[in-house]
UniProtKB/TrEMBL annotation:
<protein>
    <recommendedName>
        <fullName>Metalloprotease</fullName>
    </recommendedName>
</protein>
<feature type="region of interest" description="Disordered">
    <location>
        <begin position="216"/>
        <end position="248"/>
    </location>
</feature>
<dbReference type="Pfam" id="PF04228">
    <property type="entry name" value="Zn_peptidase"/>
</dbReference>
<feature type="compositionally biased region" description="Polar residues">
    <location>
        <begin position="221"/>
        <end position="240"/>
    </location>
</feature>
<keyword id="KW-1133">Transmembrane helix</keyword>
<feature type="transmembrane region" description="Helical">
    <location>
        <begin position="21"/>
        <end position="38"/>
    </location>
</feature>
<keyword id="KW-0812">Transmembrane</keyword>
<dbReference type="InterPro" id="IPR007343">
    <property type="entry name" value="Uncharacterised_pept_Zn_put"/>
</dbReference>
<keyword id="KW-0472">Membrane</keyword>
């Protein structure tokens, strides 16, 4: 857990072990030790290992939904004229897109509690100690934060769509950890690359040309962020980011964004 993140980890609360009777506690320890000893093999067998096509994250019913309806007719033609207005309009479109997609899987959609368009990281609901992010999703309060600092709207539109994807991962349960799943950098990369892909799926009709340009830039790996080792560790290589963005743009489905079933080299 060394790399910078644009979402905050939160640990589920457990009931106090102290109150459990001794045999139960011992059995618990033995099972955990066994899992730790067998690690990958057992996790693969019971399907909880990220990258296992049998894992709950890889077989989620959201993958059975059709292409995201990526139209956003209310978006202004000049997206750079009033960037905050553009992002506010896109927010409404993303709510509509994800509500319709989750409904196909009989999942209820609730919008983020708040979408903060901030001028400095200090104004965000979380992630204040991190030095460098364009956007961040705070799962505890379900707040999307986007840093508005550029004169071009599209990179911020992509950031907004990416943080929205984290919100969908959170409320659908895809981002939930299960069993002995290890919360490590590999887990983080699958989460981040999936969010890139899902963001591309939502923006593929809104801004297809700018989206292609952005994925081309990511693929060149020349961005300041993707060159940083810590960023690559938690978010994946520029080449893989571009790969998943292209998949989302071409197919437009969450199924195309199933990083949890992908081989390790595609989420490196
Ligand atoms: Zn992210």
């Amino acid at each position: 857990m060394n790399g910078p993140r644009d979402w905050e980890a939160h640990e589920p609360r457990r009931a106090g072990v102290i109150r459990r009777v001794l045999p139960t506690a011992l059995a618990f320890v033995v099972i955990l030790s066994g899992l730790a000893y067998l690690r990958g093999d057992l996790r693969e067998l019971i399907g909880t290992a990220p990258g296992s096509p049998h894992s709950a994250a890889a077989t989620h019913r959201l993958y059975e939904t059709g292409p995201v309806d990526g139209r956003c007719e209310t978006l202004p033609e000049e997206i750079d004229a009033d960037i905050r207005a553009t992002l506010r309009t896109l927010t409404g479109c993303l709510d509509r897109m994800w509500a319709a997609t989750l409904a196909q899987a009989d999942l209820a959609y609730s919008p983020p509690a708040e979408v903060r368009l901030v001028a400095t990281p200090e104004e965000a609901a979380c992630g204040i100690e991190d030095y460098d992010w364009a956007g961040i999703y705070c799962p505890d309060g379900r707040v999307v934060n986007v840093l508005v600092e550029d004169r071009r709207a599209f990179p911020m539109m992509f950031t907004l769509a990416h943080e929205y994807a984290h919100h969908v991962q959170e409320i659908s349960g895809i981002a939930g950890r299960r069993g002995p799943e290890v919360f490590d950098e590999a887990w983080s990369r699958r989460l981040e690359l999936q969010a890139d892909c899902m963001a591309a799926a939502t923006l593929r009709i809104v801004e297809p040309r700018r989206l292609r340009n952005l994925s081309r830039l990511a693929g060149q790996d020349s961005g300041t962020q993707s060159q940083e080792p810590a960023y690559r560790q938690s978010h994946g290589s520029g080449a893989n980011s571009a790969r998943w963005m292209r998949r989302g743009q071409q197919a437009g489905t969450v199924e195309a964004c199933n990083t949890w079933a992908a081989p390790a080299e595609q989420v490196s």
